[in-house]
Amino acid sequence: MFDTFTDRTWLWAAAGLYFAGFVQGTVSMLRHGRPAGAATYGLIAAGYVLQLIGLGVRGRLVGGCPLGNTLELCQFTAWSAITLYLAVGVTFRASLLGYFSSCLAAILTLVSLSIPSWDAEIRRHIFGDNPWIELHAALAVFSYGIFALLALTGLLFLLRNHSLKHKNVGGWHSFLPSILDLDQMSVRLLAAGVAILAASLAVGSVYWVRDMSTVNLAKLLATVAVWLTYATTLGLRLRGWLLAKRFAWACVALFAAALLSLGPVDRSRHEVPPAGEPDRR
Amino acid sequence: MTPDGFFVLGATHHRATLAVREKLSLNAAGLADLQAELGALDGLREYAVLSTCNRVEFYGVASSPDAVARISAAFCQRQQFDAVEFDRIRLTLRGREAVQHLLEVSAGLDSQMLGETEIFGQVKDAYASAQARGSTGPVLNRIFQKGFQAAKHVRTHTAITEGQVSVANVAVDLALTIFGSLKETRILLLGAGEIGEKTAKAFLSRGAATVTVASRRFERAMELATSLGASAMPFEQRDARMAEFDVVVCATSAPDPVVLLPVVRSAMQRRPAQPLFFIDQALPRDVEPAVAEIENVFLYNLDDLAKIAAENRAAREAEIAKCRAIVAEKADALWRQVAPQIAALAVKVDSGAASPEGPASGEAVPSPRA
Which one of A72, A120, A175, B9 has the minimum C-beta count within 10 Å? Predict the structure, then answer.
């Protein structure tokens, strides 16, 4: 049944639902001054299922976790962020987090699908038959999804802080979670992201240590730099040296930097002989 | 035979001043006695009494044209209130208009503080009490139960209850936007006056962990703390212990600020990750305005709180038309259901102009709101 449509069709449909969630949230905010909580959650959940199917079809095509080109990295990052949102969104008073999550997912999925060069090359069996390398890559990109959500909670913190400091607490501001909830959510997300990226690096390091020639130095440096920066941020936050507004700004800025690091990571695949043969479209 | 035997008779804050409402208010014993008296009244088939600080209302189903006048007389006699004066201020509605009134009261549309939700519980209590006494029947049961559904519909489908309209509750809502929950929030109240007391009570009623009172007169602080179930501390300790608290409510009558910038800076160094919220309800102000510039510190003064309360009030008022339209629709539907029921009970009310309670039966007395 899933093969009725191509992977890209499923992914376009998912992107459409994420975008619909964002549009619906925007209309609701403009018309009623409030986000459409349950409706947005439903659209995001439906988009998540379609994206999972799309990634599954692509995964079968490439014979592993689909992390072989920029489109796949963006899709997997968006999917990871939405996985976490669906898990935490219902427990927090965070209907605006749903709105911003749908916005982020719509941007990542629509942009990645719209740029042909990001999906010009579909690479099969990039992890060979080694599930540990696949796990390493999947964990690394999943941590990017966590950092994406962390950037959103940082953004929400900045909005909430600004609204409280400027005595502008009515309208849609009243749907922002509390300052303390956002701060605690950010610390937990940061700790989770650092731990998962550390696990990914630990799994990967087993192979780097064995044969350094299989690893691109730019990729290694970029990934380690991202982990170190996030780990340092976590340390500073826990020691009370990076707090409140500055901590939130750091979460937003670091995600922008982490996204930029995807470039070297992706380019490295072209420089290191892959385990499988690439397909050219 | 007419279905207009359903009526409401009463006095509310619209026409009755506070002094009059004090005279008309019923304590528990008085209410029980009056209910017993009403139970023995001829021509009154069903009844329920709603008594709050803003209204005393009798809802009932009458089979006699003078039942309302006799309730009025019995009530005035019990309260030793002038019957002529009561006739002047009273509200009497019949039939569909009475149904609509009950729906509006339950939804908080007729309240002094528009959209307040406490009245809903009070109406439910009044109905439960009447039910327990056996003074309700098929008509009141249906009207009250459907009325509760309608009131819930209004509350969930409009913004009539959104935003707090009292300064004390606005302060509590702001604290919630900072701390999320009050269950671990420690409150320091500086000053033991009425304004601070109201705010402290609002925090306690919404689940604040602790309240500590500090006043320049320690015995007054102790007195207030005892009445609140809080603790007291010497006013002089406020600077040294500032970091222990999450919310500081300032309501002293001191001529100069009692919370100074260096003190707050020092407190925040000891609790850098925890926000500190100052509610300055004093005039002149108790907190140095520069305190607001400190990271993780939030300062709201009386004007800020009053402005938010006024905005919330305006937002609620903007919803009235929508609420009234919903209520009118629900009242129509409900009245269509109960009118035949009342007629079937052979409730007969004389519609003559000579009716002792004034307006002709079936014709609504204009509501003071209108």
Answer: A120
Number of helices (H), then strands (E), in chain B? 13, 10
Rg (CA), chain A: 19
Q: Does B302 touch chain A (CB under 8 A)?
A: no
Per-residue pLDDT of chain A in tens (281 residues, 90 and over written 9)? 666 788 899 999 999 999 998 888 888 777 776 666 678 788 889 999 999 999 999 988 888 788 878 888 889 889 888 888 887 765 555 567 777 888 888 998 999 999 988 887 777 766 666 777 788 888 888 898 889 889 989 999 999 999 999 998 877 787 788 999 899 989 999 999 999 999 999 988 877 667 667 677 777 888 889 999 999 999 999 998 999 999 999 999 999 888 877 766 666 555 544 444 444 33
Q: Do B273 and A160 touch (CB under 8 A)?
A: no
* Homologous superfamily of B6-160+319-344: Glutamyl-tRNA reductase, N-terminal domain (3.30.460.30)
Distance from C-alpha of A29 to C-alpha of A145, rounded to nearest angstrom: 26
Taking the CA of residue A28 and the nearest CA in chain B, the distance in Å comes to 14
Tell me whether residue B53 is one of the annotated catalytic residues: yes
Mutate to test the interface with A, among B161, B170, B177 (most CBs of A within 10 A): B177
pTM, entire model: 0.73
Pick the CATH number of B167-311 from 3.40.47.10, 3.30.70.260, 3.40.50.720, 3.40.50.1970: 3.40.50.720
DSSP B89-156: H-EEEEHHHHHHHHHHHHTTTTSSSTT-SHHHHHHHHHHHHHHHHT---HHHHHHHHHHHHHHHHHHH
CA-to-CA distance for B351 and B60, rounded, in angstroms? 17
Counting every residue, how long is chain A? 281
Token pair 């910038």 in the structure block, residue: B261
Please tell me if residue B304 touches chain A, with a CB cutoff of 8 Å: yes
Task: Say what the ipTM of the complex is.
Answer: 0.75
Q: Which sign, positive or negative, has the C-alpha torsion B40, B45, B50, B55?
A: negative
Q: Which residues contact B14 (CB under 8 A, 6 or more apart)?
A: B91, B110, B367, B368, B369
Q: Is B16 exposed, middle or buried (0-12, 13-18, 19+ CB in 10 A)?
A: buried
Question: Which chain B residues are closer than 8 Å to A180 by Cβ?
Answer: 178-180, 274-275
Write out the residue range of the structural domain in which residue A95 sits.
2-280
In the numeric block, the tokens 């359903």 are attached to: B6
- The helix (run of H) or strand (run of E) holding residue B214 is strand B210-214
User: Hey, are the CB atoms on A183 and B273 less than 8 Å from each other?
Assistant: yes
| Distance, CA of A64 to chain centre | 19
